[in-house]
Amino acid sequence: MTPTAIDSLLYYAARGANALMAFQPTMTPGSGGGAGPAAPAAGGGAGGGIMNFIMLPAIFLFVWFFMLRPMRQQQKDQETLQKGLRKGDRVVTNGGMIGTVSEVFEKEIVIELADKVRVRFLRESVTKKYETAADAKPADAEKK
Fold first, then answer.
1. Among residues 22, 59, 111, 112, which is most buried (max CB within 10 A)?
2. Of the candidates 128, 124, 94, which has an alpha carbon nearest to the alpha carbon of residue 106?
3. In this predicted model, what pLDDT tens digit does every residue of 77-125 receive, in sequence order?
4. What distance in Å separates the CA atoms of residue 123 and residue 107, rounded to the nearest whole number?
5. CA–CA distance, 99 with 132 (Å, rounded to integer)
């Protein structure tokens, strides 16, 4: 079975949580709250505070660069595609329908799915342009 992105994310999140737990102070039996002879020396707990101070921004940066930033870029590319639709473009909708844009309005487009079969869609329903040139090149090479 191949691990998916969610499996990998859960694995690394669990490893990160285990690493964070390793830096948490632990209570020893008989310490009695720190007032007795088993209390740690003054200033001994400063390493854990610094580590927490470093780890929180590191986790935030990790989430930003590997999750939020790519999602924002993908959303921006999708908006550019939807705003740039022109008559004659071949597109694919959310439902997987492939057709040619025949009319363009402010919030809607009309896609011709077959001869004289036109359907109105919202611009947001277009997921990508359908590139037939890339698919036709290998077929032409096989014919020769």
1. 111
2. 124
3. 999 998 999 999 999 999 999 999 999 999 999 999 999 999 999 999 9
4. 6
5. 12
Would you list the domain boundaries of the chain?
A: 1-24+46-83, 90-143
For 36: left if phi > 0, alpha if psi spans -120 to 50, otherwise beta; the answer is beta
Q: Which two tokens stand for residue 106?
A: 């402010």
- d(CA 36, CA 26) in angstroms, rounded, equals 16
What are the C-alpha distances in Å from 102 to residues 70, 96, 97? 32, 18, 15
Q: Which residues contact 113 (CB under 8 A, 6 or more apart)?
A: 97, 98, 99, 119
Residue among 50, 48, 46, 109 nearest 82 (CA): 109
What pTM did the predictor assign?
A: 0.50
**Per-residue model confidence (pLDDT) at position 2:** 60
SS3 104: strand
